[in-house]
Amino acid sequence: MTGQTLRQPLPRALEPFLAFAAALREAGIPAAPEQSQAFVTGVGLLGPRSIRDVRRAAHATFGPGPERTGTFDAVFDAVFLGRSIAAPAMGEAEDLPQAFDAGDFDLMPEGPEEDPSGADATAAERLFARLLTSGDEDVVLRGFTRAAPGALPRRRSRRTAPGKGRQADPRRAFREMLRRDGEIIQLPKRHRRLRQRRILVLVDVSGSMKAGTDGALRLSHALMQAGERVEIFTLGTRLTRVTRALRHRSREQALTLASGLVADWDGGTRLGEALSVFLSVPRFASFARGALAIVISDGLERGGPEALTSAIHTLDGLAWSVLWLSPLAADPAYRPETGAMRAILPMLDRLGDGSSPGSLAREILAFSKGARA
Hints:
By secondary structure, this protein is of the alpha/beta class. The chain has 13 helices and eight strands.
């Protein structure tokens, strides 16, 4: 048929998955196209054996808040099971987790009261979207973006360039011999080029860090624009890679995309488990190999220090240097008091001030310059 394009029909198995996102939006629950795609991909990777597995994948992908769980499950039942959502069913709801965690953690219910300051660490998980503002540190961030390319640590790469080195340059040597009738006065040499080290940023987004999370991600965006190879993850009750979102040059657009990816804002604190998951994925662990690893966290970990100590020990073995920046270190008299921080302190190359984007920028630049010397 000329002038017409035949469109292949979608498989029937995909129809409820595509209809689910539209039904969620009609019910007032945000559902982005990227989440729908991740939902379909996640179900395919899980190889579900029952509708329960599909429901869990839906919770993990769309991350409804606690107040919307009932509506979310009702929409799921209507789309996948053909149940009516006009009236709630009698009895108790299914005992399902709100989302897949970074590991096999026990979900702990939130307490009746919540500390609005976020000063205390918590093990409870809270999943919701958050609006990240651009802040007013434009001058500091612009200065950091200009200074970082020349200050960030570098390493010798395998590629070489003409110059003073130990490796002979046969091509240049032959060209010199042709120009000089077979004579060569000095053997040309090559040296190994310098390349910027990979930068790995791990940002704690738990409740105890919520006063500084926005600034940490704004600084991470500036570092992404200045660095050659930068990887950024958030840690809380989950592990989320936000590298692709923060690659956008527009800070507002990048922060908006990142806020939609991270579902565990201001929730629990499971740094050790989340770091262990990061290191257990070979692709993610490769990001730390030979890199400057920057952890932005107060280190207020719930539970014993074993998981965090083991993870930092592994990270220290992979990374070139580990820089831990804590908002608590803004006080010159600060000394780590938790068991986890005292255990990992000997493994850190530096424990610095992470209380604001300006202090983060100064610490990163100062450490990089000192390490290069």
